Amino acid sequence: MTVRFRPLDPVQDAELLHGWVTHPKAAFWMMQDASREDVVREYSAFAANPHHEAFIGLVDGVPAILMERYDPAHLELVGLYEPQPGDVGMHFLVAPTDTPVHGFTRRVITAVMAELFADPATARVVVEPDVANKAVHALNAAVGFVPEREIQKPEKKALLSFCTRAQFEAAVGAAA
Fold it and tell me: Which residues does the UniProt record annotate as the domain Acyltransferase MbtK/IucB-like conserved (predicted)?
């Protein structure tokens, strides 16, 4: 499986994204009722924000991943924890499919983390998934995330978790 990431284009990728973020399996993205225009507006705002980047992940050339990278000192977690230099916030979503492949999502999160740590400035990845999202907690643990505590965000109760480069490498092997 070859994974590469390209910058997301809010207009060109709107139809693709709309199908992903409104799918029942994307309930934790809280965009179930979003229109195509809502998706364009949301991702255009992200694109205009210097502290947020969004990417489409191509698996063997096919769009299959939405990855968001953000600066938690400026977005999402402001006032909820003490950011450290090199902290990078991350969200990821795997495209819905009618033919799931066992282990695919774990390979995806491993590729996402490898992409984030490919930047030498990234010291630690920060995530804040919904406390009820047990599936993503297991995936996060598999790549080295350690939960710190529950936090209350405006839209959800979240599990604040961190993963250093060393924790990631120990979890998935130095080859990642």
Answer: 6-53
